[in-house]
Design a protein that fits this description.
Blueprint lengths: L13 H7 L3 E7 L11 E4 L7 H4 L8 E4 H8 L7
Antiparallel strand pairs: 1-2, 1-3
The structure holds zinc ion (ZN).
Zinc ion binds next to loops.
Pfam families: DcpS_C (PF11969)
InterPro entries: HIT-like_sf
């Protein structure tokens, strides 16, 4: 993945740096609530205007909904690499 900047920040992908800055969120819709039938990453500029759009990008736990890219990466890590 593409990284930006220098020094120790270089090891983080751009989407992780932007997500940590709280300017935007990155994530995926999970079936059956996916918007289209192919894998795509949402980049959401915050705050949501209008506010009701917050619901469209909320996690519904085991029912699906939206999952943040960072949380998905944690779930995909092999058990030996989890915290
Ligand atoms: Zn989508």
């Amino acid at each position: 993945m593409a990284g930006v900047g220098g020094g120790t920040d270089k090891k983080y992908p751009l989407f992780v740096k932007l997500a940590l800055s709280c300017i935007c969120r990155f994530g995926f819709h999970r079936p059956p609530f996916n918007s289209v039938n192919h894998l795509h990453l949402h980049c959401l500029a915050l705050p949501f205007i209008p506010r009701w759009k917050t619901v469209k990008y909320a996690s519904l736990g085991p029912l699906g909904g939206f999952i943040e890219a960072e949380k998905l990466l944690e779930k995909l890590k092999p058990p030996t690499e989890t915290k």
